[in-house]
Each structure stands twice: as structure tokens, then as C-alpha cells.
Specification:
The complex is a heterotrimer of chains A (about 525), B (about 325) and C (about 150).
Chain A: H1 2-16, H2 18-36, H3 42-53, H4 58-83, H5 95-103, H6 107-140, H7 145-156, H8 167-180, E1 184-186, E2 191-193, H9 199-202, H10 207-225, H11 244-266, H12 272-286, H13 298-322, H14 328-339, H15 346-351, H16 353-384, H17 389-406, H18 411-429, H19 435-457, H20 464-467, H21 469-512
Antiparallel strand pairs in A: 1-2
Chain B: H1 2-19, E1 28-32, H2 39-48, H3 51-55, E2 59-63, H4 70-77, E3 85-90, H5 96-99, E4 109-118, E5 120-125, H6 133-142, E6 148-151, H7 157-169, E7 174-177, H8 181-189, E8 195-199, H9 204-208, E9 212-218, E10 245-252, H10 257-272, H11 274-283, E11 287-291, H12 292-312
Parallel strand pairs in B: 1-2, 1-3, 6-7, 6-8
Antiparallel strand pairs in B: 3-10, 4-10, 4-11, 5-8, 5-9
Helix pairs in contact in B: 7-12
Chain C: H1 4-25, H2 40-61, H3 74-97, H4 99-114, H5 119-140
Helix pairs in contact in C: 1-2, 3-4, 4-5
Classes of the chains: A mainly alpha (about 525), B alpha/beta (about 325), C mainly alpha (about 150).
Chain lengths: ~525, ~325, ~150
């Protein structure tokens, strides 16, 4: 009860200064812009804007940074939906259904749903954070190396849901991705692996260039190749936003995914990206129409978007209560708080409730602002793909190059991203799905390090994974998830086979006439 | 031929610097080899805050991460030597060559100054059965390999600092590497490891909140922010040369003399800025200034001190 | 196009690759503190990759490969390759011409190559986009960009 009173008080504090709302607005808008450019992530947006907050009162500075966080995670999905190039890793699950939607001329609807889902998920995440932060943080402490390993395995079972047509090819892609994560300096043993003496490879294959290569460059190559064959898609004009009925039918998915996202985000080391994939897999597994997934299912947009914005609130929990960032963006926010003189951790909740609750309230306000800015901009964004493809493609190409460079100001990363792009292009030709690679890149280091760490703790005894309750539960869940998803996958194949045969029959019947 | 080339390069350089006589006339970039939001990054940003005041231009922090710091430091080493790129260098630079990760050492840089030294703290959870370092060491000697000791990464300052204690005192710990300070702290709080070796500033707040108990600090003197925490020697386990974490500033080789002098003076002023000093006090960071010569000397002795420790944990490659 | 031959080819390549990785990772054996050292994960993965690749070959031989691959579009592929070459030249030239000039040139050349007819569109887009990206990165985000040899500080 006390927390609700404090929360209301914090709203009052924020509303008492009109500039606070302005800073949230600036933050969210800037975040969306940064987020939708490939390579510029929410993490980077926050890091780059920290100096701007120096001259502001701490709360307002933080409000702006949280706005960037919220807007950045959301903005990534806009480019994912429009040009199949996720602006941030968290949007990689959204494009699986978002891009087909925009190919059907429904870009506006897809963005509209993404916006509403982001708002719902973000609001759930922010509320959970405001009301339950200390309890969740305490629970999170029970996650040690075996639990993280079990979580990573659980996450990897989502491969089945994102493998597309051939499960075996999806598995191969995931194994390939996992192998890539072993390149570079191994922090557990201090040994450099597969670096062939290159200092650039010592850092491993960095995530952002890989993301841009797998999706951005590959899509640019595909666009150029098919330029004369496939006519350019035009967004529908007129009423483009989703109808109330559509939104209402998606609400259960959004609520569930938002809650899952917040819980995922609150585990240190799991961020918005994992949350989105898990929610996507779960939505597909439990959907009544799983055959629509991958071809423009509205649930396939709503679930990951709700989850990744829900994760923003979740990720703040361990950062504020323990001083342990939930993901890369909250690591930057932690730095910003520290520079402003507030060190996150248990003492922050004791000594600085005057800053903790405005952060909670600000997070909720960010979601509201996001809803208005997003819906207001959806029409404008949707029109972007109506630009002539001969102009748009070179510009996207340029943004991919600059984006992969700007992550660490490195030309090595540009070559790497282009190389991965060529590989991903041919993978697409041979019907190998690329999303499993991405999931493997996210979860690989977590799986490997925590597996080996656990076995160090247990001195080579693998039973540690089954004797600890939380770890055992997640491993059992992973098996269940794998079995049910696999069944669904089989069923889907059968349905599709049937449809294909029906089409073949009817066309042969046609030709006989 | 080589001479001619370098002469040409020098001439070109002289031309370009003559064309712009005033230094600095644009923003200076501070390359940080660790990711945004981390300890090193936060210090860099706090330091850069007063750039405009003391250098006349902004100092922009850019993070160039990867490879345990190698990528970023290598970028600073090979940056254009015009004084507009300054690199943050950290502890890893003392170990890269010894561990066979890179040929880079501090000798490849034009050193500017040392910023800080941190010492390792050995901490246990507040409800731990070990109340003093002596309790812990005795138990570890009697039960080799049972006590789990979490640290922040193989070959890192805190791993080596804890390992040197274990090796010299013949106590066998089960060393568990984590990926940085924050996960190590969480593992300690969650009871997944018995002892944690981290920088003392990294456990400041947890110890103030009464959640962890710092057994000892691996330094020659007590830390001003922790007057009640004994040094290893005071706790009865003397080490001659404690492994210290350090951070400093450096330029690529070949920056014109006058610019080096200007940056030296400028960064010293930023280092002395009351706001920066206040900030470091707040987070429990010990500032230690050494000029270029002193810094070089310190790094030289550091390498010597690290060799036997790295050898003992099996990471020495020579 | 039938994917049978492609799948068998890829399967064989992956088999060889996984064997190579397994053998190469052998040098990391014994570098860790316990029996699951730095070689464990890569070797376990390459073993699984080997099995999966064999599975792919068997699947293809049994005629279960996906049958709906798109035919190679030769002119399109050539166009993609040429654009990629232009991009390579652009990245290399960036260090000489500087970011701004090289970017404008890149956009103009690619648009021309892809067949954008109207000159004014090509010029306008090149200048506008190059200016916008440069301003965003250089002035607002303060990301260091290659300056090139014609650089004069602004």
C-alpha cells in the first residue's frame, strides 16, 4: 500500500514541473529515431546522451534517458517491420511476422499493433517494477550458474518455433551460431580461441554487426537481386491503424507476453531480445492458428513487442535494487545514475526514495507518451516504404554500412557485417533460417559460461543441474516446450502439405478442362 | 628508403599541423576500451565532464570494446597521432603480452598519467561462517578445493590478486570466474560462492548496507573509505607486492611535443577538478596521480610482479 | 529448383567444417581448471553439427529435401555482386575522401547503377542524405568518422 502512495506522490512531483514531461517527450522521440536506424541501439542512444543530462536536474535527466530506452526498444521494430532490418536486437523476433504484414501493404496496421503492444507490455513491466521490485530482486538472487544454464537451454528451445520450413536446417543454423560465439577471448580460462592471431577477433563476433549482416545486408542484397522481378509493395492508404476489435482480440496475448517479458527482463543477463523470442515462441505454441505465423500473424507482432517493452521495466529491477544491470541499456543507466551521484543498490531504496519513485512513475509515463508518439507517427512511417526502391535501397545500404561501423568505430566490423550478409543471403536461397543464428548468438555465451562455471562449482559433477530446484524446473520446462513445439511443428507441416496437394490437384483439374 | 618515407610522412605531418596552429580546435575523443556503464566508463565520463572548462573543447567518450580491452587499447595505440585521440588504458595492458593475447605493452604508448589504483577486497556474505581472514584461510588449508572463490574473470586483476594469496599461503581455493564485477557480487549475495574477490570500491555499498563483510584488502595500507578493514598483512597473511588494478591515460606514439604538454597539463586539471574528486570519493575510488615517468616506472614493476602469479595460475605464455 | 544437390553439397561442407573445428579445438584441451575446459563447448558443438549435417545428407538422399527453392536469377545476382563491389570501394575510399564526400558519391553511383533516371533526384538525395547522416553522427552523436585527406576542422 505504501508503495502506491509513494508512487502517486512521485507523479505529483513530475507533473509539478512541465519540463519533465517535455524531457520524456524528447527522450521517447529521440529514442524512436535512434532505435529505427540499424546499428544505433537504445544502449548507444543512452550512452551518447549522458553528457546532455549533466546540466539537468538528475530526475529530469533520468526521465529523458528512460524515454530513450523505451523509445529505442520500440523504434527498432519499425525498421524491422518496414525493411526487415531490426534497428535493435530486441526487434528481431517482431520482423518474422511484421515484415510479411508490410509486404501485404499492412505496414500501418503492423506498426499500430506494435505500438499498442509496446504500451501494454511496457505499462505492465513498469507496474510490476513499481510494486514488486524488492521481492523480485530477492528471488533473482537465487539464480546461480546452473539456473542460468537451464534458462539458456530453455531459451534455445525457441529455435523450433522460429525455424521456418525445415527443423533440421534451423538446428544447423543454431549450432553454427553457437560455434561463432566461441570465437574470441574466453573469460573463464583466459585463452583466446579461433582468433588466428587477429586482435579484432579477440573480441569475438560482435552482436550488432552480426545482426545488421544477417538481416540488413541480406535484405538489401535480396532487394537488389529481385528489383526487376518483384513489383514494389505500396502501403495501403486511408484508415491504416488496427481496428478496436483486432486490438481487443490481441489483448490476452499482450498481457501474457508483457508479464513474461517483465519477468525475463528482471533476470540479470537476459534482456529484451531474449524476452521477445520467448514470447514469440510461446504465442505460436499456444495459438489457435499457428499456420499464420511467419506469414503475417498479428499475434506474432503483438507478442514480441509487448514482451520486449515489458522487459525494460523488468531490467530496471536488479539495476535499482542490487546495482546489477539487467541488460546493456540498464548498465548505461546505472552509469548515469552513478555520475549524477546516486549509486544504485540496496542503499538507494533506503536513502533515496525521492529518486526511486519518480523513476517508477517516469517509466509509466514513458509508456503513455510512447503510445501517442507511436500512433501519431505510424501513418508517416508506413509511407516510408512507398519511396522509390531505387532510391530507398542505396540509402538502406548506406545505413547498414554506417550502422555496423558506428558500434565501435571499426571498419573490421563493416567487413564482418558485409561478409555475414553475403552468407545470410545464400542461406536464405538454400532455405536455411537466420533467426536461430541470432538466438544462438544471444544465448551462446550464457549457455557455455554458465555450464562450465556450474561444473567448476560442482567439481565436474553434472548432477548439479538436476539437484537444484530452479535449475531442474527450467530444464523440465525446456523439454516440455521442445516436445509441444515439435508436435505443433509436425501438425503445421501436415496442414501445409495438405494445402499444397489441394492446390496441385485443383490446378491439374483446371488444366484438364 | 624507409628513412625517406618517414621523412615524407613527417613533412606531411608538419604541413598539416602548421595549417592548424591552435590546439585544440575541435573536440577531443577519449577512447574507452570497456563498455558503457561499467566502472572504467563511468570514471571516464566523470572525468570528461570538466573537459570544456580545462581544455577549452569537449572531451567525447567513445566505447570501443572487445577482447578484454585489447580492441580499444589497440585502437588508441594506432589512432592518428594528432592529440585529438586520447586512450584510457587499464590493467589488462600489463598482462596481454605475458598471456599471449597481444604483443601490445605500455611501451607502445606515449603515457600521460596514472588516474587511479584499486586494491582487491576479499568479501563474504554477512551471514557467512567466516568472520575473519584467519578463519577462512585455516578452513581452506584444512579442506583444499572446497571453498569457492568467485572473481571477475581469468587473468583479471582480482583473479591474480586472490590467486597470489592462495599460492603464497598454500591454500587451495576453487576459483570460479564470472564475467565482471556485478555478476560476481550477485553470486556472493545469492550464496553461490563463499568468497568474492572484487575491487574494494565494487563492494562499498553492499558492505555499508550490511549485506557483505569485507575480510581484508590486498594493499599495503588501509583504504581511507574503509578504515576498519585490515590489510592482508594486518590480518596475518603478508604479501610483498600486492596486485593492483590501475587505470591511466595515454596517447599514441608520435604526437607533437607541445600537444603532449598541453594535454598533460589539461588532464591534470580535470583530474584535480573538485567535482571529479567529490565523485570518486562517493563511489569509493582511490585516486592516485603519477606523471608520465612515474607511471612508466609503476607499469614496469607491475609486469615483474605479475609474472610469477600468472605462472602460478597457468596463464603465463612465454 | 530442387534442393537435393544443394543440401548434399552443404551437408558435405558442414561435415568437413565440423571435423576441422573439432581438431583445431583440440589445442585448447587442458587449458582450463577442470575437465570441461575451453575446448569442451566447441568440440561438443562440432560433434552435434557433424550429426546434423549427416542427417541433412540422408534426408536429401531419401528425397525429403524441400522442393520449393527459387531458381537462381543470374542478372539479379550479377547486379548484387556489382553493388557489393561499389560498396567495398566506398568503404576503402572513405579513408581517402573522407566520410562526407565518399558517402555522397556512393549514393549517386549506386542510384545511377540501379537505374534511377532523373538526375535531379539522384543529386538531391545524395546531397541531402549524406548531409543528414554526417550531421547526425558528427555533430549530434559525436561519433568519430573518417576524415580523409581534405579535412579542415569546422
Amino acid at each position: 500500500m505504501e508503495s502506491i502512495v509513494l508512487l502517486l506522490g512521485a507523479f505529483q512531483t513530475i507533473f509539478s514541473d512541465p519540463f519533465s514531461l517535455l524531457f520524456i517527450l524528447i527522450g521517447v522521440t529521440a529514442g524512436i529515431m535512434v532505435g529505427c536506424l540499424p546499428g544505433l541501439t537504445a544502449t548507444m542512444g543512452c550512452a551518447l546522451l549522458i553528457p546532455f543530462t549533466f546540466s539537468m536536474p538528475p530526475i529530469q535527466g533520468l526521465l529523458m534517458l528512460m524515454g530513450i530506452f523505451t523509445g529505442g526498444i520500440y523504434g527498432g521494430s519499425i525498421s524491422g517491420i518496414l525493411i526487415r532490418t531490426p534497428g535493435t536486437p530486441a526487434a528481431a523476433a517482431t520482423l518474422i511476422d511484421g515484415y510479411p504484414l508490410s509486404q501485404q501493404g499492412e505496414a500501418g496496421k503492423a506498426i499500430g499493433i506494435a505500438t499498442i503492444a509496446s504500451f501494454v507490455g511496457g505499462a505492465i513491466g513498469a507496474l510490476i517494477m513499481a510494486l514488486l521490485a524488492p521481492q523480485i530482486a530477492q528471488f533473482g538472487l537465487r539464480f546461480g550458474p546452473p539456473e542460468f544454464f537451464a534458462l539458456a537451454i530453455f531459451g534455445l528451445t525457441m529455435i523450433i518455433s522460429i525455424s521456418g520450413e525445415s527443423l533440421l536446417k534451423g538446428v544447423i543454423a543454431a549450432l553454427f551460431g553457437l560455434l561463432i560465439t566461441t570465437i574470441g577471448f574466453d573469460p573463464l580460462s583466459g585463452v583466446p580461441r579461433f582468433t588466428f592471431g587477429s586482435e579484432n577477433l579477440l573480441g569475438g563476433v560482435t552482436f550488432i554487426p552480426a545482426l545488421i549482416g544477417l538481416f540488413g545486408f541480406a535484405q538489401v542484397f535480396r532487394n537488389i537481386e529481385k528489383m526487376e522481378i518483384v513489383p514494389q509493395v505500396k502501403s495501403k492508404v486511408g484508415k491504416i491503424l488496427p481496428s478496436f476489435k483486432e486490438v481487443k482480440s490481441l489483448l490476452p496475448t499482450m498481457f501474457k507476453s508483457g508479464g513474461m517479458g517483465a519477468m525475463t527482463g528482471s533476470v540479470p543477463g537476459l534482456g529484451a531480445d531474449v524476452a521477445a523470442f520467448v514470447a514469440y515462441g510461446e504465442a505460436k505454441r499456444t495459438s489457435k492458428q499457428p499456420e499464420k505465423f511467419g506469414k503475417g500473424a498479428l499475434e506474432g507482432v503483438a507478442a514480441p513487442e509487448s514482451a520486449n517493452n515489458g522487459a525494460t521495466g523488468g531490467a530496471m529491477i536488479p539495476m535499482l535494487t542490487l546495482g546489477v544491470p539487467g541488460d546493456a541499456v540498464t548498465a548505461v543507466l546505472l552509469g548515469a545514475l552513478t555520475i549524477h551521484g546516486f549509486q544504485p543498490g540496496p542503499l538507494l531504496f533506503r536513502d533515496h526514495l525521492d529518486i526511486v519513485y519518480p523513476i517508477f512513475a517516469g517509466m509509466i509515463l514513458c509508456q503513455v507518451v510512447l503510445l501517442f508518439v507511436g500512433l501519431g507517427g505510424a501513418r508517416l512511417f508506413a509511407k516510408l516504404i512507398n519511396i522509390d526502391i531505387k532510391v530507398l535501397t542505396p540509402v538502406i545500404f548506406l545505413l547498414c554500412i554506417v550502422g555496423s561501423y558506428s558500434m565501435r568505430f571499426s571498419f573490421f566490423d563493416v567487413w564482418l557485417a558485409m561478409g555475414i550478409g553475403v552468407l545470410a543471403y545464400f542461406m536464405g536461397q538454400a532455405k536455411f533460417p537466420v533467426s536461430p543464428i541470432l538466438l544462438a548468438l544471444i544465448l551462446g555465451p550464457m549457455a557455455e559460461q554458465n555450464m562450465r562455471r556450474s561444473l567448476m562449482l560442482s567439481q565436474d559433477d553434472p548432477s548439479i543441474f538436476f539437484t537444484r530446484p530452479i535449475s531442474a524446473i527450467f530444464l523440465i520446462l525446456a523439454v516440455l516446450m521442445a516436445i509441444t513445439s515439435y508436435r505443433k511443428f509436425k501438425k503445421l507441416r501436415a496442414i501445409e502439405q495438405q494445402i499444397a496437394e489441394d492446390i496441385a490437384e485443383s490446378s491439374s483439374a483446371e488444366s484438364q478442362k | 628508403m624507409k628513412k625517406l618515407l618517414s621523412l615524407c610522412a613527417a613533412a606531411l605531418f608538419a604541413f598539416s599541423s602548421a595549417a592548424s596552429a591552435d590546439f585544440p580546435e575541435k573536440d577531443i575523443t577519449l577512447i574507452v576500451p570497456w563498455s558503457a556503464g561499467g566502472g572504467t566508463d563511468t570514471i571516464a565520463r566523470a572525468l570528461a565532464k570538466s573537459g570544456k572548462k580545462h581544455l577549452g573543447v569537449n572531451v567525447n567518450v567513445v566505447n570501443k570494446t572487445g577482447g578484454g580491452g585489447v580492441v580499444g587499447m589497440s585502437a588508441a595505440k594506432t589512432a592518428r597521432p594528432d592529440g585529438y585521440s586520447v586512450g584510457m588504458i587499464t590493467f589488462g595492458l600489463s598482462t596481454y603480452k605475458l598471456m599471449g593475447l597481444s604483443d601490445m605493452t605500455y611501451r607502445d604508448f606515449e603515457l600521460l598519467q596514472l588516474l587511479n589504483q584499486s586494491s582487491a577486497a576479499l568479501s563474504v556474505a554477512a551471514d557467512s561462517q567466516f568472520k575473519t581472514l584467519d578463519d577462512l584461510m585455516k578452513y581452506a588449508k584444512e579442506n583444499p578445493g572446497i571453498v569457492t572463490l568467485g572473481h571477475t574473470g581469468a587473468g583479471g586483476a582480482w583473479h591474480l590478486s586472490a590467486a597470489s594469496l592462495g599460492v603464497l599461503q598454500e591454500a587451495k581455493f576453487n576459483y570460479i570466474p564470472f564475467d565482471g564485477g556485478a555478476p560476481t557480487r550477485t553470486a556472493l549475495l545469492g550464496g553461490h560462492v563463499t568468497v568474492a574477490a572484487t575491487g574494494i570500491d565494487e563492494v562499498k555499498q553492499l558492505s555499508e548496507a550490511g549485506q557483505v563483510n569485507i575480510l581484508a584488502v590486498n594493499a599495503l595500507e588501509r583504504h581511507p573509505a574503509f578504515p576498519d578493514t585490515p590489510t592482508l598483512e594486518e590480518a596475518g597473511y603478508k604479501l610483498d607486492a600486492p596486485v593492483l588494478d590501475w587505470r591511466g591515460l595515454a596517447l599514441p606514439k608520435g604526437v607533437p611535443e607541445d600537444r603532449v604538454k598541453f594535454l598533460e597539463a589539461g588532464f591534470k586539471k580535470m583530474f584535480d577538478d573538485p567535482e571529479f574528486v567529490e565523485f570518486t570519493k562517493g563511489v569509493g575510488l582511490m585516486l592516485v596521480y603519477k606523471d608520465a615517468a612515474g607511471f612508466g616506472e609503476f607499469l614496469g614493476s607491475m609486469e615483474e610482479a605479475l609474472k610469477p602469479t600468472l605462472d602460478a595460475v597457468g596463464l603465463l605464455k612465454e | 529448383m530442387d534442393s537435393k544437390r544443394i543440401d548434399i553439397g552443404i551437408g558435405i561442407i558442414l561435415c568437413l567444417l565440423s571435423v576441422a573445428i573439432y581438431l583445431y579445438a583440440e589445442q585448447y584441451a587442458g587449458r582450463g581448471v577442470n575437465s570441461y575446459g575451453p575446448n569442451f563447448f566447441p568440440q561438443a558443438l562440432s560433434f552435434m553439427l557433424f550429426l546434423a549435417a549427416v542427417g541433412l545428407i540422408i534426408q536429401a538422399l531419401r528425397g525429403k529435401a524441400l522442393k520449393n527453392l527459387e531458381a537462381m536469377n543470374k542478372p539479379g545476382l550479377l547486379r548484387t555482386a556489382v553493388t557489393l563491389l561499389i560498396a567495398t570501394a566506398y568503404v576503402l575510399l572513405m579513408n581517402v575522401l573522407g566520410f562526407y564526400l565518399a558517402t555522397g558519391l556512393f549514393l549517386f553511383v549506386v542510384m545511377t547503377y540501379l537505374g534511377q533516371k532523373k538526375l535531379w533526384i539522384r543529386v538531391l538525395v545524395s546531397v541531402l542524405v549524406a548531409t543528414a547522416v554526417y550531421s547526425l553522427f558528427h555533430y549530434f552523436l559525436k561519433i568519430p568518422l573518417p576524415e580523409g585527406i581534405f579535412y579542415t576542422p569546422v
